């Protein structure tokens, strides 16, 4: 199978979040049939849509080349979250690690387990900023150029931290 370019968002706001996100980026490159092609800088953002005050998030996006199917990649991402201590006590809970499959090539998918492109990627500056750092001309099926969506989110602050070490 020919590898498919995929994008995964990473976020954490519990414990040593920067260390966790960097370690998770490295772990993505060790998934079966998967190569880490690039990783964005780290970004600090305030939590969105949360019911209670939480620490800021550290976010990034990784570009992968994978031979895994979309659902198999999702399974690997969920297993990786669990290895990093992710628990799901309630929706929008603080996270030791959150991994979201944003794009899988040009695949459009809507199943009970997985929607591609990610249904909220165009509404979140903390996703679009690192995603566009990796590819400023990136388009998503059904959404078009993602840079146009980022321009609409000027009210969401995103602070770029240090670039991800190569």
Tell me briefly what this model is.
The chain has helices spanning 17-28, 70-83, 125-134, 146-151, and strands at 4-12, 34-39, 43-45, 57-66, 98-104, 109-110, 115-116, 139-140, 144-145, 159-160. By secondary structure, the protein is an alpha+beta fold.
What does this structure look like?
- By secondary structure, the protein is of the alpha+beta class.
- It has helices at 17-28, 70-83, 125-134, 146-151; strands spanning 4-12, 34-39, 43-45, 57-66, 98-104, 109-110, 115-116, 139-140, 144-145, 159-160.
- The strands form three sheets. Strands 1, 2, 3, 4, 5 and 10 form a six-stranded antiparallel sheet that branches. A two-stranded antiparallel ribbon has the order 6-7. It has a two-stranded antiparallel sheet with strand order 8-9.
- The radius of gyration is 15 Å and the shape is globular.
- The mean pLDDT is 92.
Topology:
Elements: E1 4-12, H1 17-28, E2 34-39, E3 43-45, E4 57-66, H2 70-83, E5 98-104, E6 109-110, E7 115-116, H3 125-134, E8 139-140, E9 144-145, H4 146-151, E10 159-160
Antiparallel strand pairs: 1-4, 1-5, 2-4, 3-4, 3-10, 6-7, 8-9
Sequence stretches where pLDDT stays below 50 over 5 or more residues? none
> How confident is the prediction overall: mean pLDDT?
92
**Alpha carbon gyration radius:** 15 Å
Overall shape: globular
- Main sheet: strands, sense, barrel: 6 strands, antiparallel
User: What is the number of helices?
Assistant: 4
Share of residues in helices: 25-40%
Number of strands: 10
Strand content: 25-35%
Q: Structural class given helices, strands, pairing? A: alpha+beta
What is the straight-line distance between the termini? 27 Å
- SSE series: EHEEEHEEEHEEHE
């Amino acid at each position: 199978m020919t590898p498919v370019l995929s994008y995964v968002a990473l976020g954490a706001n519990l414990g040593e979040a920067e260390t966790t996100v960097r370690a998770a980026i490295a772990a993505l490159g060790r998934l079966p049939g998967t190569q880490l092609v690039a990783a964005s800088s780290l970004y600090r953002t305030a939590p969105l849509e949360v019911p209670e005050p939480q620490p800021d998030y550290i976010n990034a996006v990784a570009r992968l080349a994978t031979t895994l199917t979309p659902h198999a990649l999702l399974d690997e991402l969920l297993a990786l979250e669990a290895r990093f201590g992710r628990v799901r006590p309630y929706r929008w809970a603080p996270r030791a690690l959150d991994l979201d499959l944003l794009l899988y090539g040009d695949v459009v998918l809507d199943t009970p387990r997985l929607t591609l492109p990610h249904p909220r990627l165009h509404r979140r500056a903390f996703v679009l900023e690192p995603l566009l750092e990796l590819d400023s001309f990136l388009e998503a099926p059904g959404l078009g150029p993602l840079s146009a969506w980022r321009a609409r989110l000027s009210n969401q602050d995103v602070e770029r931290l240090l670039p991800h070490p190569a």
